[in-house]
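We read letters as residues; the fold follows as C-alpha cells. Both lines appear below.
***
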Amino acid sequence: MAKKKNVYFFGEGKAEGDAKMKDVLGGKGANLAEMTSLNIPVPPGFTISTEVCAAYYENKKKYPAGLEEEVLANLKKLEKTMGKKLGDPEDPLLVSVRSGAAVSMPGMMDTILNLGINDEAVLGLAAKTGNPRFAWDAYRRFIQMYGGVVMEVPDTAFEEAITSIKKARNINLDKDLSDKDLKELVEEYKKIIQHHVGKELPQNPLDQLWGAINAVFGSWMNERAIKYRELNNIKNIKGTAVNVQSMVFGNFGDDSGTGVCFSRDPSTGKNEFYGEYLMNAQGEDVVAGIRTPEKIATLETENKKIYQQLVDIKNRLQKHFRDMQDMEFTVQQGKLFILQTRNGKRTGAAAVKCAVDMVAEKLIDKNTAILRVTPEHLDQMLHPMIDPAALTNARSLTQGLNASPGAGCGRIVFSAKEAEDWHTRGEKVLLVRQDTSPEDIGGMVVSQGILTSTGGMTSHAAVVARGMGTPCVAGAKDVQVQGKKVNIGGKTFKEGDWITIDGSSGFVYEGKLPLAVPEISDDMKTFLSWCDDVRASSVRGSIKGFEIRTNADQPEDAKRAFDFGAQGVGLCRTEHMFFEKEKLIHFRAMIVADTVEKRKEALRKILPLQRKDFFGIFSAMEGRSVIIRLLDPPLHEFVPQTKKEIAELAAYLNIKPAKLLPKIEKLHEINPMLGHRGCRLAITYPEIYDMQVEAIVLAAVDCIKKNIPVDPEIMIPIVVTARELKLIRPNAEAVIKQVLEQEGVKLKVKIGTMIEVPRAALRAGHVAKYADFFSFGTNDLTQMTFAFSRDDVASFLPTYLQHQVLDVDPFKSIDEEGVGFLIRNAVEQGRQVNPNLNVGICGEHGGDPVTIDFCFRAGINYVSCSPYRVPLARLAGAQAVINNTTPGPVNKKASTGKTEKVRKAAKADKPVKSAKAKTPGRTGKRGTKAGTR
C-alpha cells in the first residue's frame, strides 16, 4: 500500500497540487499551488494537509506516523530551493506559518511570521542585508507573534512595552524606532515571555516550527473559529491546513511594502481595482490600524512598474478563477510577490453586480452567476440596515434571535395601544414586550421594529414581523420588561426612549442610529429574471416548473409580494383579517352566540368585509393562483380578555357583562393549539366556513364582472382524517354552486387541504381522494412531529444545537429525516391517487434556502413564503434546480416523488398502500444522508 501523502510542495513553477484540491490543501494552499503553476511570483513553500488536522483531533492531538519525517524532507527541499537554511547564523531562511481551511475564515485562525530567527540568526540577517534595523524589527515581530500565539502571553504586555519605549523616545510610529531601540525591545520582549510563561523563547528553529504548527492546528478549535463556523454554517470540512512559506519582506526599507487588493470593488462590485498598501511594512501593519494605508491607485504614481505588474496579475487571476479575487502582496526591494489569492468576500450589492457584469463579459455563464450569489446577499439589499459608519461608536446592549431581517429605530412602547397612540402623533415607535399575541397586530403594524424577551424564530412576533417585513429581535433574555420600564443588558429605559434593533444580526443598540434603505437595482432585476427562467424550465417527471408564491393576508401584502415577483398566493390566513377592529366585534359576537341564527346574523355582517379583502388580494395577483385558508386558530384566541373588551362586547350585544363570563370561560382551552380549531370548527359550526366560502366566491365573481382574471383555491386546515374532508367538501361545493348559479358566472374553484398533522401525512393517500391540492403547514407539522412548542423551544434548543443533539433548528430548516420523511410519504401517497396533485409548502420554512432545496428534490410544485422573502426564494429555487438536475441516472430518479411502481398503481386505481420508507436525502446530486448538512 502506498504511503499516504500529508505534505505538498510548491515552488519554482511546479506544485504538488492545484485549485481543485481545496478539501486537502485548504483554500490558501490550493491557490498557492495553482498560482505557482501559473508562474505567478509566489514565494516557495509547502502545505501540511487538512487531513492531518482531522487525524490530529481524532487521535487526541497526536500526529500521523511519519509526518515529522515528511515535514523535514520538504523543509530541506525548501532550503535547497531558496539557497538558505532555517536558523543559519550567517544567511538564515525565515518562514511564515499560516492556516488555511477549505472555506475562507478570515482572521479566525493563527499566523506566525519571521519564524527561524533567533539570537544568532538576527546578527547574520543584519550582516547579510546590511540593514540592522530590518533584522531587529523582524525579530521583535516574531517574538510578539510567537509569544502570543504559541506561548499564550497576553498581547497587551508586548503593546505596553513598545508604547513605553516610543514614549521615552518621543516617537509615534513603529517604523521610526532605530535598530538600537528595537534591540532593546527584543530583550524586553524575552523578559516578558520569561515572566508570563516561566521559560525562555525557543532558540532552536525546529522547535519554533513545531510550536507554530501545533498552534495553527490548535487554532482550528479556538473560540472565535468555532463561533465563526457556527455563524456561517460551515460544516463537514476536515480542518485547517498549515502553510509553511519562505518569507519576503515588505519592511526592508522604502523600496519595499505590503498590501491587500481586490480585482473589483468588494462594496459596489464595480470593475475597478481596489485596495490599500503601506511602504516599509509587514502584512499585519495594514490591518492593525497603527498607520493609515495608501489607496492602491496611489501606487501607480509611486511605482508604475510594480503597479502595472500587479494589475496584470489581478487580471490574469480573475480570468483564471473567473471570480473577483482578494490578493495579498509584498514588494521586497522592488520585486513583487503574491502571498495569497482567494475569491473575495463582498456585499450583497457587489455580489449581484459582479454576477451580472461577469456574464456580460462572458467570464461566466448564467447558472454560475446564480450559484455565486447567496440568499443572504439579496437579504442585505432588501431591508433597511444600520449605516455602517454609525456602528463604530454604537453601544450594543444585548443580542437575541435575528427573527426578521432589517434594522428598525424608534421610541420604546410597551403595548399595542401605546404604539398606535404614539404613531398617531407622528412618532416612530419600537414595540418592546415579553411576547406578542394576535391582539397586538395593530401596534405591530405601526412599529418600526419589534423586540421580545421570549419566543423563538417561529413565535407570533417573528412570524408576523417577517410577513410584514418589519425587523424583529426575539428571545432576547436580557430584556426584562417591568411595567413602564425595561432593563436591557443592565441598563434601564422608559417609554419614549430611543433604541435601535438589527433583525439581521439580533443585536440591540442604545439610542437612535441612522439607517440606510437600499434600492432594488436594475442588476438585481436582471439577475432575478435569470433565476425565474431556470425555475420555469425545470422538469421533474410530469412536474414542470418550480414556483415561488407568497403568504399574504391583506391586499397590500399581496401587492408587495407581486412586485417582488411572487407567482401567486400560497397562503392567505383569513383569521388575520378578523383582528381588525371593524370585524373583531362581529366575530366575537358570533363566538358567544347562543343559537345558530344569532351566529349567522353575526357572520352576515362579516361577509361583505371579507369579500372586500378577498377582492383586493385577487386584484393584486392579476389572475395568479390564490389559496385561501379557511379559519384555522381556536376560538379561544378571539375571546375578549380584559374587562374593557368584555364591556365593549356586552354593550354591542345589549347585555350585561356578567352574562358573557360563563360563555367566555367555556371557550377557554388548556391546550388550544391541539383543541377546537380548523376543520373541527367547520364540523361543529358549519356556518363559519359557509360564510367564508361565499365571501371568496362573491369576490371572485366581482373580479370576473370587472374583467379581472382570477384563480381562487380554498384550503381546509388541520385535517386529521379523510372523513373530515368527506364531510366538509360537499358543503363548500354546495355554496360555490349556489353563488355561481345566482350570479350567472362560470368559475372553477379548487378545494384542497393543509397537511400539518402527522396522521394526515401518513394517511395522505386517503386524504387525496377529497383534495385537489396539498399544502404542507410545516410550522405545525414540525411542532407536532417533534413535540416541541415552537414558542418555548428557545429555552433548550441552543443547548441541543451546541451538543449536536440536533444539527439545525427544525423550525428554521426542514428536518429531512423526520418531517421530511412525512412530506415525501404524503407526496408519494397523494400522487398514487391523483397523479396531477399540486403540492406546496406554506410554513415559515418556505423562505429557507435549505428547505427550498429539499422541496425541489421531494417533487413539490411550489413554496410559499412571506413577501419580503420572495426574492430570496426565487434565487434559492433556481439554485435548487441547478444543484439537483445534473444529467445522470441518479438525478433522473431524484425529486419526482414517484417511482415507476407508484405511477402504475395510480394508473390502475389500486388501493393505496403505505409508502415504503426510503432513507430521505439519498437521491439527487448530493447523494448525502439527510440531517448531515
